[in-house]
Amino acid sequence: MKKRVFVVMMAAVMGMILMTGCKSKDVNEASSENEKQVETQEPEDSEAVADTPEQEENTDTDLSGHSLMIYCGAGMTEPFQKIADEFMQETKCEVNVTYANASQIQSQITTSEEGDMFIAGSQDEVDRVKDYVVDQKALVKHIPVLVVAKENPKEINGLSDLTKDGVTFIMGDTESTPIGKIAKKALTEAGIFDSIDIEATTTTAPQLATAIAASEADAAIVWKENCKDDGIEIVDTTDLDASIKTIPAVTLNCSDDTETLGKFYEYLDTDAAKEIWISFGYEIAE
Fold first, then answer.
1. Residues in the chain with pLDDT < 70?
2. Cα separation of 96 and 138, whole Å?
3. Do residues 117 and 249 lie in contact, with contact meaning Cβ atoms separated by under 8 Å?
């Protein structure tokens, strides 16, 4: 009897030992499986951490504390100032623009040897400061047109009609403004420059359109984008097609912040900048 009890007790002990061994094995296997999962997750966590700085860098457009000094022809004041304002709002970069006629800008660049960019009225203006030019690209077309007072009371239909008795003409200064030089060249090539009654000259292109609207003269040759006054209209003629110019953006070698200048140079190629030019009557250069 005692022997049987002993045998039963021994069997129970062995069963407990076997059960404990199985549980221990299950725990070890579970622990090992967890370690494997952790090991496979570590590269993903590490990769996610590595991506964070790169994403932040790509969205960084803050140019606070940076500034640009830009020269621009006076006739382009409205569209270019809007472009500059949009760039400042987007990047917080300060953009200071000097608007003047070509002669004044050229003199300032060569005398001060300061500035980052020049928005010129034509390639001729760039050539006069070529020693300061690093790079340039075409922005929009500068289109000269013949304008007259509303309803064209003097019946001016082309350049040849400017020689009619009683017709007065106003033009940009032939020494300091591109539109003045273009007008003189076109009228000279047409063989009528000396036969025209030139009432006065102006130092900027917008003044020409204003003068016609104010009935200070009968006709003028101005840039197309300056013809917004209700008191004037454009004559439908092809006489000035050969005089169409291209407005270039020129980077200057006296720039103190070429990196920021490069950002603005790129911005001029964006759809946002192009839409501003178009809204003011310019045509994008191809």
1. 1-60
2. 21
3. yes
Note whether 251 and 117 are within 8 A (CB): yes
Per-residue pLDDT tens digits for 18-67? 444 434 444 344 444 444 443 444 444 444 434 444 433 333 579 999 99
Q: Which two tokens stand for residue 178?
A: 């591109």
The DSSP-derived string for 97-122 is EEEE-HHHHHHHHHHH---SEEE-SS
User: How far is residue 22's CA from residue 224's CA, in Å, rounded to a whole number?
Assistant: 93
Q: What are the backbone angles phi and psi of residue 267, rounded to the nearest 5°? A: -60, -35
Distance CA 50, CA 176 (A): 58
Locate tokens 């020693």: which residue?
131
In angstroms, rounded to a whole number, what is the distance separating the alpha carbons of residues 282 and 19?
89
Decide if 77 contacts 51 (C-beta within 8 A): no
Q: pTM for this one?
A: 0.66
Q: Which residues contact residue 150 at a Cβ distance below 8 angstroms, ignoring those fewer than 6 apart?
A: 213, 230, 231, 232, 233
Beta bridge partners of 95: 68
Locus of tokens 């403004």: 177
Biggest CA–CA distance in the chain, Å, is: 150
Hey, what are 212's tokens? 């016609």
Q: How is residue 53 written in tokens?
A: 């700085």
- At position 225, the amino acid (one-letter code) is E
Q: How far apart are the first and last CA of the chain?
A: 112
Measured at the alpha carbon of residue 211, what is the angle toward residues 207 and 216, in degrees to the nearest 5?
Answer: 150
